[in-house]
Amino acid sequence: MTANETTAAVTDRDMDTNWNWTRPIAAPGSMAVDFEERIDFDRLRRYRVARTRWALRNSGLGSILCFDNNNIRYITGSVIGEWSRDKICRYALFTADCEPYLWDFGSAATHHRLFAPWLEQERCKAGMLGLRGSVPEEAGLFKQAAEEIKQLLQREGVADMPVGVDICEPPMLFALQAAGLEVRDGQQTMLDARQIKSMDEIVLLNMSAAIVDGAYQGISEALKPGARENQMVALANKILYESGSDDVEAINAVSGERCSPHPHNFTDRMYRPGDQAFFDIIQSYMGYRTCYYRTINVGSATPAQRDAYRRAREWIDAAIDMVRPGVTTDRIAALWPKAPEFGFANEMEAFGLQFGHGLGLALHERPIISRLVSFDSPFELQEGMVFALETYCPAADGNGAARIEEEVVVTPDGCRVITLFPAQDLYIANEY
């Protein structure tokens, strides 16, 4: 069988998610065992490569050059640590008819040749560019990389076709153009590939949510007067990493008078009796992320706080009930209040509060659901998508706000919620 025949066979075999929706979505342990099926990482890697081949063949591009760590991991099954996320120091090149080329940070290339047998050894290279401008263009690394990429594209027979690039430093873009390559947006192609999750991806997202279930249990037990927002963040980090998280990207911890408007951060504010507090836990397990808000009151709640929570719950439940294949995102966004109805001048200022966004290796994938963008650019939901829905409602008396978020998996006839810490009613921690 030739290389191209092998590629075609892999694509035909692995594009289907093969999900049996009559069964619950599993959240197995993190160990590999011989007595039950858990995550099949070889199958996961094959699926992601097959999806990328499919997206690339339908894009009009001849190749895709990725600097986005999420896309690199999706294509190559490689990761070297979260410290590299903002350095733009790794890159991968992929065509529809070849195995990926990977340029990695120094000794990581040697490591992958030893420990990543699914990658072809001669395609695992060391590479270095600008480290976000720390290495100047005059050093010649951008030019050298662009010339090497062009030579490889010539070898693969696609140098005369556009190359898609997801993100890059401007000098790299200029160097590619100077080498005679036509550069186009490649991020949309990668989002095409990533928007439908396989059975393994769905289970990993469910396992990731399960880790956060446990973190909220720990927060609810510790949320008492005298504790501080930063202490809850520290506690959550401890629980998450001990439970298997590989990256805690951010934790919002917002309480009391800080709840409205939402500041999207945490401080050292001390919790007081009756405070309304909400949290967002953004972390990943095996790269697959959560965005998972919960609102928890400290000991008691006022009628205004309970009413805010009820309204936020009604808005999110209406959205969940709407989710099914074929529904477009404008229909979901229309269920949510307009910005002036909950205290904002316009939809730009209210963006991210009544909101939906895809989840996967990135925090924000397709679909994006918002009154800001969904009416002008509606997007159709499909089976196998995974995304978060989130709502927000400030308390009428100014003492707090409710924030709820649920992650859902689109099934043939609706969706399944995978964020399971209690949220149907306002949760009161350490009630008195």
Walkthrough of the structure:
By secondary structure, the chain is an alpha+beta fold. The protein folds into two domains: 40-194, Creatinase/prolidase N-terminal domain (Creatine Amidinohydrolase, Chain A, domain 1, 3-Layer(aba) Sandwich), CATH 3.40.350; 199-429, Creatine Amidinohydrolase. It has helices spanning 3-14, 41-57, 69-76, 108-115, 141-156, 170-178, 187-194, 199-222, 229-242, 303-322, 329-333, and strands spanning 63-66, 91-95, 101-104, 124-126, 163-165, 183-185, 247-255, 276-285, 288-289, 292-298, 355-358, 365-369, 386-394, 401-411, 414-417, 427-429. The strands form three sheets. It has a six-stranded mixed β-sheet, with helices on both faces. Strand 14 and strand 15 form a beta hairpin. Mean pLDDT is 94; it is low at 1-10.
Keywords:
alpha+beta, 33% helix, 2 domains, six-stranded mixed sheet, 11 helices, Creatine Amidinohydrolase, Chain A, domain 1, disordered N terminus, Creatine Amidinohydrolase, globular, single chain, 432 residues
Low-confidence stretches: 1-10
Q: What is the annotated CATH architecture of the largest domain?
A: Alpha-Beta Complex
Supply the helix-strand structural class: alpha+beta
For the record, give the distance between the C-alpha atoms at the N and C termini, rounded to a whole number.
71 Å
Helix content: 25-40%
